[in-house]
Structures are given as C-alpha cells and as structure tokens.
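re: that complex we talked abt at group meeting.

here r the seqs, copy pasted straight from the sheet so there may be weird spacing, ignore it
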Amino acid sequence: MKKYICPICGYVYDEAKEGVKFEDLPDDWKCPLCGAPKNLFKAEAIEVTKDEIKDEVVESSETKEDLREMSDLEISALCSSLARGCEKQYLDEEKELFTKLANHYKNKAQNKESSDLESLISKINEDLNINYPKARKVAEEKMDRGALRVITWGEKVSAILNSLLSQYQNDKEFTKNTKIYVCDICGFIYVGDEKPEICPICKVPSFKLLEVKRGA
Amino acid sequence: MSKLRAVRNLRICSKDCLCLYVCPTGATDTETGQIDFAKCIGCGACSKACPSGAISMVPYQYPKQQIKDELVITDLNKLIKNKVLEEQIAETIYKNSNDEIEKQLFKSIARANRLMAEDLYREAGYMLPQSKNTKEFLERLLEENKNIELKTDIEKLLNLLECNE
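got the structure back, here u go
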C-alpha cells in the first residue's frame, strides 16, 4: 500500500484508507481538493534530490543582462506589475498611468515566434525542466526566500498549464461542461464548477479566483 | 515611519459609519466610499473606531526594498522572457479561434502567464513602484520613447512617485 501526493496542494491519496489502488483509479480522476489531474501525482517514497540538477547550470549563469534589451512584452508585464503595486498602495492615478503604458507596449509587441500549440507546450516544458530547477538552485544558494516563493508558485501553475494542454490535445472540448477560474494572485487555473475555498497554490481566499466566462 | 494616511478596504466595510463620527476633518464622508486623502491628516481615529477593521493606515514613504542578487535576477528574467512569450502564443491562439470553448481556455492560459510574469518581476528587483530600479526603468522608457502622449504620462509617473533610495 502506498500514498500518493498531489504536487499542487499536498492532498494525500492513501491507498490503505481508500481501499482502491491509485493505479486502478480512472485516468480522468482528479485531485478532490484542487482538480490537479492524476498524472501529476507522485508516490510518497520517491524523493527528488536537489543534486539531480547538474552543477554546471549554476556556473553557466550569464553576466548581468542589459536591461535596455527588454522586449515590448517584458516592458508591458513590468508596467502591469507596477500598476498592481500602485493599486495595493491605493495610488489610483499612478495605477492608471502604468496600466496605460502596459496596454500600449502589449499592443505594440510583434509576434516574432510561431504561435502554435506545439511551441507553447515546448516553452512550458523548457520552464519546468530547465528554467525553474536552475532558478531554484540559485535562489537556494543565495537564500532568497522571496524568489523561492515565486519559483514554487510558478512551477506549480506551469505544471497545471502543461497538464491542461495535454488534456486539450486529447479532447479539444474537455472543458465543455465546466467552468474555468483563474487565481488573480498566482495564476492557478481551476477547471470545475465549484471553486476551492482557498487557492491551493497561493492560499488566497476564493473570491480572488475569477471566473473566465465563455463568449466574453 | 513618516506620515500615514487612512485607506478603506471596500470589500470589508460594513457601513457602520463610526469613521464619520470620529474623523476630525471630514475626510471619510465621500460618495465613492474611499477616504479623501487630501483631507486625511493621518491621526488614525477612524481606523481605531472601525468595528469591522476595514480601515488601515498606510505610509506615504516606504522603506527601501530588499536587495536582490544579480544571479537570481538573471534566472528570474529568463523565466519572464518565456512567460510573456507563452502569454503571447496563448493569446494568438485565442484571437485566431472561432470556438468559444477553445477561446475560454486560451484566454485563461494567457492570463495565467501574465500573472506569473508580473509576480516574477516583483522578486526580480521591482517590488516597489517607489524604488530606484523603477525610477531608472521609467527614465529609460522616457528616453527611448517618441510618442508625445506617452512621454507626458511617463513624466507624470516620475513626478508622482517619489524615489525612496
């Protein structure tokens, strides 16, 4: 008998208690707490050690990038992030100005790369397999708890996106009969009718999980 | 910490209106529900009297943000580069689709990626709008931009946000 753990919210599926082997659960079985698909679950015994990430990746960190080379999209994301920062401080005028800048640069941005599903999936996998583990290693070495926080949340959200896209590849209408919510804090996507009480990733109360309506 | 001002969390405010009775300057009687920052003297009477805990006192000046290591910033920037591209691809799929189910999913994915990119920037040296990093970023934008209207907006921001470093 084994235990299987949801990597998103930590829910434990205990075969001994449930009386059904994890592998015998149907493929479309989902985490009862956060909706994470079955294939993301990991058996409790397996532990990934940090050493598995090769040392060379840390050493190869490039020198400081010239910030002047920010793309229009990056400028837009930084401006919308600063708009949120102003909103939190109740600085309404500043928030509006940053939002305006963010929209301007977003509209100005050109499509440089191929915009198909395959390239989206390959980029997400690049993040999950290379960029997040590498960033985590550096953040651990530098003892940057804030960076570790954003890496942990982002890694979990990216894993969810990856699994949603593979479900979509199998069945283009897999969300046909359910609602979709996006956590306005961390970006967690919940596919299902009743959203969880708190976001399973960042733990914000459910009112910040916003429904994305169809046809809107 | 320097001067404070009262702000009201409109989601929590239960309209018990004790702030109206205790405010010495009439800063809390606005139609929008938010406090009139021009009238607020930062005495904190409303915050203490509020039975629902909807009013908090926030500073005008914030302490300096945490210093980030260059190596951490480099790796977070690499993630940001991908997240904004992922947002763009998802948005293009959204725009090119005629299917409402597909549109809904890819709109959600685009939004999730934007939120992750924004969050990464906060940990990559841009936590505070009043930071030196933000100021230098805005100055670079001003320098590179030719659009008069945007230049005016960037100048406004530089004037409004007093740098705390």
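couple things i noticed - Chain B touches chain A through 72 residues (CB under 8 Å). Residues 70-96 of chain B form the longest helix (27 residues).
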